[in-house]
Structures are given as C-alpha cells and as structure tokens.
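User: Structure with nicotinamide-adenine-dinucleotide, tokens only please.
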Amino acid sequence: MAKLRYGIIGAGGCGKGKHLASYSLLADQVQIVAVCDIIAEKADAAADQFGAEAAYTDYRQMLAEEKLDLVSVATPNFVHAPAAIAALEAGAHVHCEKPASMTPELVQSMVDAKNRTGRKLMIGLNNRFTPWAQFAKQWVLAGNLGEIYHAKCGWKRRRGIPGKGGWFTTKAQSGGGPLIDLGVHFLDVCNYLLDFPQPATCSGSTYSKFADCGTSTMSSNKFATAESTYDVEDLAVGFVRYVNGISLELEFSWASNTAQEYNYIELYGTKGGLKYEKGQLTLFEDFQGTVLDASPKLKNDGAWGNAETRHFVDCILNDREVLSKPEEAVKIMQIIQGIYQSAATGGEVRVG
Ligand SMILES: NC(=O)c1ccc[n+]([C@@H]2O[C@H](COP(=O)([O-])OP(=O)(O)OC[C@H]3O[C@@H](n4cnc5c(N)ncnc54)[C@H](O)[C@@H]3O)[C@@H](O)[C@H]2O)c1
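Assistant:
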C-alpha cells in the first residue's frame, strides 16, 4: 500500500514537537514529504531533522507542487482557516491545530470546505485522546452520573504567558488570550463529556493585568517591549447556560496570583460526580447509603500527539469518522466568542 504523502504548514514548537515528532513514528504508513514555514531557516531545519525532501515558505506553492494526502496546520491561529481550506481544496486530509480558528463563522467555513471536498478535517485537541478523558467518556456513557446538570472547568497558571509580545498576545493573530488558547482544550473535553449540548447564553469577564509583569515560569515567555503587542486577556471567567438547562462555570488564566499551574474538570450528576484535577480522575458515587470515591489507575499513552496522529491515520486509511470533529469546534467557538462579547458589553449574550 502506498504511504500517505504528508506535509506540514508551520514548523514551530507545536509543528515540530507534536506533529512532525508523532507522524515520524508512523513511517510504515506516512512519508514526510514537505515542510512549510514562512521563515525559510525553520522550514529547512525541520525538513532536515525529519527527512522531508522539500522545504517551502509558501504553503500554496507546496500544496500545488507536492500532491499531498495529509497536511498538518500548526501556524498561529489566524492562518488556520485559510491554510486548512487551501489544503482541503488541494485534495489533502487536514489535521489542524487548536483552536480550529478564531470565530465560529471561520470554523464553519472550514466545515463547509471539508463537506465540499469530501476530505477529512480533524482538530488537534490532544486532551480528548488522553486515557482519563476516554475513561471519563465511557463512565458517563454507562450512566454512572445519572442526569448531569452542572459542570466546571478551568486551567490556571501562576506565570505562563506564551510568547509574550508575539502572536499569542496579539488579538488579531490569536483571537484572544488564555480563553481561546488553554480554554479551548478543557471546554472541548467538558463539552465532549456533556455530549455537546447547544450553548444558549454566555456571560463573562476578562482581565489583563500581567502585561508588565517580569516574572515567568515558562521558558518560552518573552517579555513585552514598548513595541510589542499585548492586547489580549490574561484571565477569563464565565458562565454558560445550554438549551437543555445544563450550566457551566469556567476560568482560564495565563497569569494569576494563585497556586502553580493546574487544570480541572468537574461534572455534577444526580447519581454520581466526576472530577479531573492535576492528572488524577476521581469518580464520586453512592453505594448502599455510603458515599464512595474511586480513582482509576490509568496508563499514560506516551508523548504529546501520538494517540491523536495514530487515530487520524486510521480514520484516513479505513474511512472512519474522526473523534475531534470541526462541527463540535463551531460550538466551542460560539462559547468563546460569547464570553468575549459579554466581557466587552457587560451583559449576557445569546449564542448559537
Ligand atoms: N495542542 C497543543 O497542546 C498545542 C500546544 C502549543 C501550540 N498549539 C497550537 O499550535 C499552533 C502553533 O503554535 P506554536 O506554539 O507552535 O507557535 P510557534 O510560533 O512556535 O510556531 C508557529 C510557526 O508557524 C509559522 N508560520 C506563521 N505563519 C505561517 C504561514 N502563513 N505559513 C507557514 N508557516 C507560518 C511561524 O513562522 C512559526 O514557525 C497554534 O495554533 C497553537 O494554538 C497547540
């Protein structure tokens, strides 16, 4: 069987560390053919490191010349929609990094391109593919929580603003701060466990307090200079009501005077509950009049992205449905946009 001809758009931290590293482990099925980055040195270095034949600085040229079957998009967020749509239209299946794009309308345009071309499009939400998220999904599906009526999720860092002063902190290129960057991961897992109900209203607040802060716990943190941009939030909090009556509280921050980095999801059900926090999943139950906590011992599945790339290759080769669907990403972006609009206007926003 011919190998899938693979190319990548964006050879930065995630492109190399997640996509190229994990697709290179699938050498029986995938041939890394071409790397594109607008910075020629980065494209050349990644092509050398992962044995690609060609390096490009223009993804449209790469797509026209290489006849790729599979393309990763791991650029700054504002490039996701145009690059993914161009790759789908060139006939490739596309593995696009999170957040799918910056607005629900842009994500919908990616869904439309996927439907028009008949190719597959998967969003790189690696937390979905973790053993804890998959165990939690099966636990919920088995009815162990009864009726779920409320949820909470969050991800907070003490000092962890990525690429400060670069594209991450420039709203026109990122779409926002920690809500769209970290929030998209845990909002996605939380909504996956809730079976993606339609959001109805959002209210929220955002704060930007750490632009001038000089302490960092991230090696990639570059400090803002007078010329650099920091026009995104560093804390977002919010409340979502769904059409089916479920509610969700959220908080996402890159920098806060709080405990060191941690993330969590909590589900409240009539029969049981569930909490994921600091790498541990805990299941809350009632047994014969006694409350009971259970902690599954889950195996880790190896490095960042491996389970996800294996899954996408299997979906392509065996024509299966992808786990992390762009249609679901439209709903997540409705929530994110709703929180940002509410924070800007000070009122509750109707979404969807
Ligand atoms: N799934 C995860 O856990 C995870 C983690 C980190 C980043 N990400 C996502 O990956 C994406 C990239 O983040 P990163 O941390 O690697 O950023 P980065 O800045 O390290 O890398 C982005 C790369 O894209 C290149 N680029 C920019 N515009 C381009 C274009 N038009 N064509 C080709 N290349 C272009 C840049 O030169 C850079 O090398 C973002 O969407 C981010 O949200 C996901």
